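Page header: ASSEMBLY MODEL / four components / 526 residues total.
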Amino acid sequence: MVTHNEQPPEYHDHPPVLKLLAHAEFFIGLETSGLHQVLQAARKRRLEQQETCFQQDDPADFLYLLCSGRMKLTQLTADGRQVLLRFVDPGEVFGGIALFTGERYPVTAEAVDECELLLWDGPAMQRLMEAQPGIARNVIQHLAELVKSLQDRVRELSTERVEQRLARALIRLAQPTGQMDAPTGSIEQSDKPSKEPPPTTSTERFPLAIHLTRQDLGELTGTTLYTVSRILSRWERDGWIESGRERITLIDPTALQSLAEDS
Amino acid sequence: MVTHNEQPPEYHDHPPVLKLLAHAEFFIGLETSGLHQVLQAARKRRLEQQETCFQQDDPADFLYLLCSGRMKLTQLTADGRQVLLRFVDPGEVFGGIALFTGERYPVTAEAVDECELLLWDGPAMQRLMEAQPGIARNVIQHLAELVKSLQDRVRELSTERVEQRLARALIRLAQPTGQMDAPTGSIEQSDKPSKEPPPTTSTERFPLAIHLTRQDLGELTGTTLYTVSRILSRWERDGWIESGRERITLIDPTALQSLAEDS
DNA sequence: CGTCAAGTTGAACAGTATCAACTGATGTGG
DNA sequence: CCACATCAGTTGATACTGTTCAACTTGACG
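Prediction written out in full:
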């Protein structure tokens, strides 16, 4: 990061966007001049809540970086069932798979909240990667991590029962989302009873940031909304969670953790 | 018999290996000099049948290219169940995920047959990618395709029943294996005396090249060997397949196809 | 020929899906 | 502000898919 370059701490034009860009997974480690180059090649787009960015099977034109809001990527089956592949948080990238394989988008990208995006077309991205090899390195690392997480998911779907998968999904969703979010309580803390418990007995609460329906959770874990509802009801009776309409709060994450890890 | 063009004069040093390298997914499109550079950075390794190349959770040291034979990548769960993630055919690469994320191998790689491999360590691969940007492009494309196929698999496991998944798996396994099965100098070409299958689909037979147990198919489709056995028995009664010990022949692939695509 | 691995099949069982009926919350427009 | 429509969620009854266990058969190979 050592540069006697002419960029003072306050970026002259788009400070917040540049700062986000500097922390985005594809552009980490770039020089400030490089970030400017990236930004100049970008276009901006804004999506209303529920608006779709692109539909499954649309020709793959752009790579997107989410700046604010939240997106979800879903896949539709031939008989109308839907699978929720993942949520996209600010700083994360989507649409790259199709762009890099030169085919059509294999998923639909829909805005959960109001979203701001940056986008690059294929040739622009190609040029950027050639000009700055660090980008290609980041892309490779990101894709490799995506592959790893998908392999884990295949293993879970193949070998685990719904209850375990659901427990795992809730734990993941409760983690503070990567780097970009304000530090809400991390679940990791509750693993360590060493810390002095807050006023009451270790009743730390972990409300999920995302609004999720039972249907969403079903599509995320490969089951139906009915089964999700039953399991959540049981967990609530056991005092492990609290749940309302599109709202879930983990009360005893360790119980879920051990459930997820049991055979 | 075509024998007079087996050794093109362009490849003066290691003709068969170079030719394979030139068609391998990571190195397609490279100049001959670039291929030489790649080859010089490589080490060779040979594996006996059933020998493991690396174990899950081993530190990730090398990227491997399979030259001949066949490997399988499996993942072991905490309670001892196994998932078969994929088979590796000649010309394909494995071990890259761990190398690119700098972590441990998430899978175990085992030789199904006797195998010949080329391998590169992390720094060597890094240098090669810097020297020849085409490699990074190929890596990105390969990873993107891997992501896409894994997403498909997640969708299938989430929404389809065992019978459909098994039908799909058999159809995939019956496809001639990608690009390398072409007339390149593969060590064994004895199993393919037939040329391109003519469009006469009536009584054509499609024996699977791979030796697969019911257990393998179960681990591949996320079910048990018992369920696989029952379904195959039923299909055999219906005249759609023939099966013996570690041997399956598709007799009516269209029946399986429609089964896989039905709701 | 004996041994071992692969494969088959029945019976009991468990886990989920499916459908239907219902409750409660949210938001909207008259 | 209330009536209404809509959407999220709950729960019971039922059916079905797939698992598990056990006993058995078949095939390969020294």
